[in-house]
Amino acid sequence: MQEAYNLAGDKNVVASQSYGPLVGLRYKKTSFEIVIGLPNEADGLPSVLEKFAEEGIIDEVLTQMNKDNVRLELAKFELGLSKLFEEPALGVVQGESVFLIKVFQEAFIKVDKEGTLCILSEEYIGANLTDEMYQGLYHGSKKHEPDLDAVLARAWDGGLDKMIITGGSTTDSQKAIEMAQSDSRLYATVGCHPTRCNDFLQDAEGYLNSLKALIKDNKDKVVAIGECGLDYERLHFCEKDIQLKYFEYQLQLSREFSLPLFLHCRAAADDLVAILAKNRDSVVGGVVHSFDGSEDALQKILDLGMYIGINGCSLRTQENLEVVTKIPRDRLMIETDCPWCEVKPTHPGYTHVVTKFPTVKKEKYTVGSNNQVKGRNEPINIVQVLEILAAVRKENIDELAAAIYDNTNKLFFNK
Ligand SMILES: [Zn+2]
User: Fold this and answer.
1) Contacts of 28 (CB under 8 A, 6+ apart)
2) How remote is the CA of residue 164 from the centroid of ligand 1, in Å?
3) Cross-referenced InterPro entries, in alphabetical order (predicted)?
């Protein structure tokens, strides 16, 4: 039996009534931690819960494990992590009654029937509208009926008039294009995400040619090269040298097809800027999407003539909110990066959100209701990004929206 406690405002803490260990997730900026609490005999579970709540330790509870197994399972789990990252696990910190395991955000975890924590690897990166969440699948398990059509309908009803579906590999880009073909308002990008650049290793020219073929055969649908760029926060998926080499390598597609870049940049602004500056002649423009860098990084990217894309991940800290006020209005774009990067109630900009949508847990979600799935971002939520930007930049929201719309058309749709 499970019972829900709400001990820490919007952080839902769910706990079993039995006194087993509690397993939860704590989201950090670039990673999450698995939190495992072992109640001691005297205090029992409620005191552990109170402690967790007080310290804001848990954002999401995974499950409970059998108390006797927990140490064993932890050891196995740590081994699994080491294998995935081919390095020692990122650290198990053992406190009095709390274990913390740091994990990169993109390695999803699940708990299988035996109660073993497992890693689900990188196939969940990127995603967006081709993501399985819109087919009702979460970490491989079915939680509700497919609802992509409903999600799109909400977006069109909400006033969106075009959407760009991001690709991050040949397979991904192919899927994005196929989806784009189903509606005249949908478009796609074609390119290789920095974390996928190992795909180039076997036959770089062949891989590039397959990207080229996708662009050539779908000229009416492909509006950008990308996502491409550099991601130094996820070197465990693809090492730096390979990222650098094949980011630069695919830049030639921009000039060849006269298409702008849809750029991904994490903790790598200096190198990204250096490569773009060196290859100025190969590039016809672009946007750095999901920007969350410093003001210094912003300035360097602006100096190259690039646009800046803002989503919920770009608005997670007070510093983020200050940086976005420095973006010139004629260089600003907004996005959701759904199903990821939603604006969360814990984010500092959330107080400026006016338009809120009812959400329910994925298990309770029914297609056709007006609810959204809790924790899954969708295109209509782009309005929340706009509302935060208008507030922190102290601009008229309609004028800001019109400017952003113009910028987007100028870069992607000015054929
Ligand atoms: Zn990205």
Assistant:
1) 105
2) 13
3) DNase_TatD-rel_CS, Metal_Hydrolase, Serpin_sf, Serpin_sf_1, Serpin_sf_2, TatD-like, TatD-type_Hydrolase
User: What is the whole-number distance in angstroms between the Cα of residue 124 and the centre of ligand 1?
Assistant: 13
Q: The domain spanning residue 353 has which CATH number?
A: 3.20.20.140
The Å distance, Cα 126 to ligand 1 centre, comes to: 7
Query: Coil, strand or helix: which one is 233?
Result: coil
| Residue 125 tokens, joined | 């990166």
- Distance between Cα 18 and ligand 1 center (Å): 41
Choose one of 120, 152, 181: the last residue of a domain. Answer: 120
Token representation of residue 294: 């410093």
Structure tokens, 101? 């395991």
Model confidence pTM above 0.85: no
pLDDT in tens, the chain (415 residues): 122 222 222 222 232 323 334 444 444 444 444 555 444 444 444 445 455 555 555 554 443 444 344 443 444 444 444 443 333 333 333 333 334 444 433 333 333 333 333 333 322 223 378 888 899 987 667 889 999 999 999 988 888 888 999 999 999 899 999 999 999 989 999 999 999 999 999 999 999 999 999 999 999 999 999 999 999 887 877 899 999 999 999 999 999 999 999 999 999 999 999 999 999 999 999 999 999 999 999 999 999 999 999 999 899 899 999 999 999 999 999 999 888 889 988 899 999 999 999 999 998 999 988 899 998 999 989 999 999 999 999 999 999 999 999 999 999 988 6
Q: Are residues 103 and 139 in the same domain?
A: no
